[in-house]
Amino acid sequence: MKPSPRENSVPSTSTPRARRPAAQSVLLYLGAVALAAGGAVISIASGSTGDATKPEASPIYGVTIPKAYRQWQLIAPATEAAPLDELRAVLGNDKAVGAYGKGTLPFPDGTVLVKLAWKQVPSPEFESATIPGPATTVQVMVKDSKRYADTGGWGFGRFIDGRPADLAQHQTCFACHAARVKDRDYVFTRRAP
Ligand code: HEC
What we know:
Elements: H1 22-37, H2 39-47, E1 73-80, E2 86-92, H3 94-102, E3 112-122, E4 130-143, E5 154-160, E6 163-164, H4 167-170, H5 173-181
Antiparallel strand pairs: 1-2, 2-3, 3-4, 4-5, 5-6
The structure holds heme C.
Heme C is lined by residues 78, 80, 88, 90, 113, 115, 139-141, 156-158, 165, 169-170, 172-173, 176-177, 187-189.
């Protein structure tokens, strides 16, 4: 695939999740990440034995990237300061949106939240504007109070270049969320006004 210079494109009127079919977006993602990291990413990809078309599950939790998440609704954007320097967007499925709308806590089973992240870069067309650069991680939280009873009912998954991050990273998720936002059902993000 010939990678397109997607990191330079500015979404026109709506949020960046609109319009493209999910599969195509993921491919564009991979393209952008590969473009940014060059040989490193390519050698990791070719060294793996997994089937690239089949979603891989996170360690501990068995969470995968949900199929059509780019069509989900925006809960809130966020930025993360240096050293990560990221733009983020948290999207939610219908259950998540319903719970946010009514202020339901805890979130019902079936709630899924996805956090997208990109390096933030200055717009090439307009100095003071900051836009998404290469994609960094896709993070997922899935509510299933029985399956994930030991971790507040949430299963976690962090994906880099479409593949789950390692076990050690997944051992950190719940502790941080539990330490800071236990009283909000372990979810940091508030819905943007
Ligand atoms: C050191 C603290 C910390 C750790 C560790 C951590 N998170 Fe988070 N997480 C946050 C903060 C802070 C936010 C909200 C700010 C933001 O969107 O970046 C967040 C937000 C999220 C969200 C959006 C829903 C929400 O709670 O706002 C998801 C999904 C998520 N994290 C998944 C993960 C996964 C998966 C892991 C482990 C691989 C993980 N997190 C580890 C601090 C942490």
